[in-house]
Amino acid sequence: MTSVLISAIKRLHISITPPLRLYSSNVTVTPANTNLTITRKEWAFQPQYTKPREVWIENLDTVEEQKLGLFELHPSVYAASPRIDIMHQNVIWQRKVRWVSWAHTKTRAEVRGGGRKPWPQKGLGRARHGSIRSPLFRGGGVVHGPRSGKSHFFMLPFYTRILGLTTTISAKLAQDDLHVVKDLELPTDEPGYLEELIEKRNWGPSVLIVDDTDYAPRNITAALDNLPHVNIMPVYGLNVYSMLKHDTLVLTIAAAEKIEERILRLLHSDTRQQQRAFQLDQV
């Protein structure tokens, strides 16, 4: 019976090969019988307690999704613990930084009229008043009312902002709303092609595309002109509010590497000297 099973297995011609992994590094390995490039990555700060996260590299040159390989992400950046409170603090900070209240009320000195004393100081048995534009009178000035041009700016702590980025990116990856693409090259500049691609891949009604530079290919910039629900930005503009505003986050390989490199460097470096120059007196 054993010999029959062995001979049957041999006739199947089963070849066991290790799983394909695509990293970003200078060391490149090309396996046999495949056209994928497998590269090994050496991080400056190796993960200690958690395993790296892996995502498929997708393409944009066809509407149908094609898996080009696997890309490994550092768990300190893309697998951080979920902190809804940190995300909320970042959103409030971003909304208040650009909020200027223009509500304005007039004081008793700015209200029209009320120049003379309404009645004599003594002799009538009435309360003492010097102007009918006093806050006690109808039509008078307002005490402690809002004054126009009031800024609600405040500075969020540095590492709270960094943690907000890692938490939001990790939440996007955990919810399968983060996709990594090889590049942003499109075969056409028609908006319909990009709309069909987004619908075919179930990327949701709104998409945020992030590249490592602010020089995007012409086809994708022309296609996005008529798609208000699809936006593109460079790595240096990535923020918590924009990521939460869009359903899907699409990163290029270069953008994912740059985000990972910058955040890891900030998480493992002493930045107190650099932060001291930007400290504000918020008393």
Automatic annotation (TrEMBL):
Keywords: Mitochondrion, Ribonucleoprotein, Ribosomal protein. GO terms for biological process: translation. InterPro entries: Ribosomal_uL4, Ribosomal_uL4-like, Ribosomal_uL4_dom_sf. Belongs to the universal ribosomal protein uL4 family. It comes from Arctia plantaginis (Wood tiger moth). It comes from the Eukaryota. This is Large ribosomal subunit protein uL4m. GO terms for cellular component: mitochondrial inner membrane; ribonucleoprotein complex; ribosome. One of its GO terms (molecular function) is structural constituent of ribosome. The keyword Metal-binding does not apply. It is found in: Mitochondrion. Its main location: mitochondrion. HAMAP family: Ribosomal_uL4_B.
